[in-house]
Amino acid sequence: MEIIRTKQRLADVVDDARRQGRSIGLVPTMGALHAGHRSLVERARKENDVVIVSVFVNPTQFNNPDDLRTYPRTEEADAAMLEACGVDYAFIPSVEEVYPEPDTRVFDLGPVAEVMEGAMRPGHFNGVAQIVSKLFALTKPTRAYFGEKDFQQIAVIRRMVELEGFDLEIVPCPIVREADGLALSSRNVRLSPEARAIAPKIHYILELSRDLKAAGKQAAEVQQATLDAINDVEGLEAEYYQIVDAATMQPISRWEDAGELGAAGCVTVFCGGVRLIDNIRY
Q1: What pLDDT tens digit does each residue of the chain (282 aa) get?
Q2: Burial status of residue 101 (CB atoms within 10 A of its CB: 0-12, 13-18, 19 or more)
Q3: pTM: predicted TM-score of the whole model, two decimal places
Q4: Are 247 and 267 in contact (CB under 8 A)?
Q5: What φ, ψ does residue 149 adopt, rounded to 5°?
Q6: I need a surface site. Which of 10, 70, 93, 134 has the fewest CB within 10 A?
Q7: Does 178 map to a domain?
Q8: Main-chain phi, psi angles of 259, to 5 degrees
Q9: 10 and 32 inside one domain
Q10: For residues 232 and 177, what is the distance between their CA atoms, to the nearest angstrom?
Q11: Residue among 91, 126, 93 at smallest CA distance from 112
């Protein structure tokens, strides 16, 4: 595996692969890699001739400077994992390499970016669109792989692809969980032992919410009951729980209001001061 630090070297590698007619799989990451990332990389490896993984903590998508400062950075361990997974190229640039000057682009991401994470983290999704569009332009991937834990983000990236006219396939990949149900996240390392013991209750409560639907409760009732159940757990504080159309990310109050992709429940919970996200399909 080659570690690439510059856009020029990455362009040379990509141009060479494209000349040979080789398919390129891209896995964009912010590092602190875990088994969830490994699942994305392994799928990319199966489906493409060349696999590129980017490792870059993107400053433009953080609206909280403390969150950016404390985001875990584990480059040596990340590189070892990627090499073991058979990655061809790891693109690990500096901030100055990616943003030699400020990126002032503002994307018209529309309603998918205005709710939930978009409402709670102003500017976050515009920053995501900035970095992912840069990565797509640099790597010209055949396919790009994203984890469904960031469910809303995938919808936002699809919108950005539509706006920018990129010719590639977005491949959503299932959430990978610990044995106790906690969704794998780079932020989990920041959980205290006490918070780590409580955190799996988030997924447990989401699973129980399916029983409420099966019992005939409408989406609005399930949403409120799930929110209450999370907040009743000492040590958990929900920022939001929203049941939405799985394609448009728009809130629904009745199950029949969901489109052909059905409904999803998306949640953000503070657990021991750490902000965790999760979701469930109905």
Answers
A1: 999 999 999 999 999 999 999 999 999 999 999 999 999 999 999 999 999 999 999 999 998 888 899 888 999 999 999 999 999 999 999 999 999 999 999 999 999 999 999 999 999 999 999 999 999 999 999 999 999 999 999 999 999 999 999 999 999 999 999 999 999 999 999 999 999 999 999 999 999 999 999 999 999 999 999 999 999 999 999 999 999 999 999 999 999 999 999 999 999 999 999 999 999 999
A2: exposed
A3: 0.96
A4: no
A5: -60, -40
A6: 70
A7: no
A8: -80, -160
A9: yes
A10: 23
A11: 126
Q: Which of 34, 37, 124, 203 is catalytic?
A: 37
Q: CA–CA separation, 53 vs 44, rounded Å?
A: 10
Number of domains in the chain: 2
Structure-token match 């409408």, residue found: 218
What gap in Å lies between CA 101 and CA 117, rounded to an integer?
A: 27
Indicate the DSSP class of residue 260: T
Q: Which domain holds residue 228?
A: 186-281
| The two structure tokens encoding residue 235 | 């040590």
* Region of 182 on the Ramachandran plot (φ > 0 left; ψ -120 to 50 alpha; else beta): beta
Per residue in 1-37, is it b (16+ CB within 10 Å) or e — as a string?
beebeebeebeebbeebeeeeeebbbbbbbbbbbebb
Residues with Cβ within 8 Å of 228's Cβ and at least 6 positions away in sequence, in order, are: none
* CATH number of the domain residue 140 falls in: 3.40.50.620
Whether 124 is a known active-site residue: answer no
Q: Which DSSP string do the residues of 69-129 spell out, in sequence order?
A: HHS---HHHHHHHHHHTT-SEEE---HHHH-SS--------GGGGTSTHHHHSTTHHHHHH
Residue 278's SS3 state is: strand
User: Of 173, 205, 237, which closes a domain?
Assistant: 173
Q: Residues 236, 74, 118, CA angle at the centre, nearest 5°?
A: 45
